[in-house]
Amino acid sequence: SVLSWFELLPIFSYLIQAGRCRHCHKSLSSSYWWSEFITGCLFLHAFLNVDTISLKDFSIFFILFLMSYCDLCERWVPDLLQLALLIILLYPFTWQQQDFFLFFFSLVTFGLIGLAFYTLRRNWIGGADIKLLLLLQFALPIVKFPIFLFTASSFGLVFWALSHLFLRNAPKELPFIPFISLAYYFVWIYL
Questions:
Q1: What would the DSSP string read from start to end of 27-66?
Q2: How far apart, in Å, are the Cα atoms of 177 and each of 17, 66, 128, 131, 147?
Q3: pLDDT in tens, 141-166
Q4: How far, rounded to the nearest angstrom, does the alpha carbon of residue 74 sit from its chain's CA centroid?
Q5: 80: how many CB neighbours lie within 10 A of its CB?
Q6: What is the pTM of this model?
């Protein structure tokens, strides 16, 4: 059946209908509410910080949100999102000799570590996680990258510990891209 206009209002229609379809009365996944809420927060943040946030930064945040959503729901991230992120990150990129050396050294080192993890212990970290970490090296200064990795790992470990303490059926696999995204946002705002 065709949805009416008031059933298409983000967040409000979900709350008014108590999380159920008005026609068949099946419950709707809370992921719809959360995705609408987080997207609204991203747009509100961009609107309130229009002087400090660029279109490039907003695009990075939005793509990271989409990647996080895919990883949470499907445990899979489309390569198209990673390609879009690569294009956005490389577009106005300028190289200086010192930055190039540090970036190249860090890229090779992290790439070798990522390759070792991926080949030796495939179930420890996913391919999309490794690709995203490599891509975000274009977005963050090299001196902030260890803090970023520590923050992402800390967020993931805290979530894992809390879920194992308080949930009966704690997840066995941990989608890491949402924590990478949160850490990127945290480092971007506070450092």
A1: BPPHHHHHHHHHHHHHHHHHHHTTTT--HHHHHHHHHHHH
A2: 31, 10, 8, 10, 16
A3: 878 888 999 999 999 999 889 888 98
A4: 14
A5: 9
A6: 0.74
**Residue 36 buriedness (CB in 10 A; 0-12 / 13-18 / 19+):** middle
**What digits encode the pLDDT tens for the residues 31-50?**
777 778 877 887 787 778 77
Give the tens place of pLDDT for each residue, 65-98: 999 989 988 888 998 999 999 888 877 655 555 5
Q: What does the alpha-carbon distance between residue 1 and residue 24 come to, in Å, rounded to a whole number?
A: 10
Both structure tokens of 20: 């159920």
Q: Give pLDDT tens digits for 106-118.
A: 667 767 766 776 6
Nearest to 89 by CA among 52, 146, 51, 140: 140
Q: How far apart are CA 81 and CA 58, in angstroms?
A: 15
**Predicted local distance difference test score (pLDDT) of residue 98:** 53
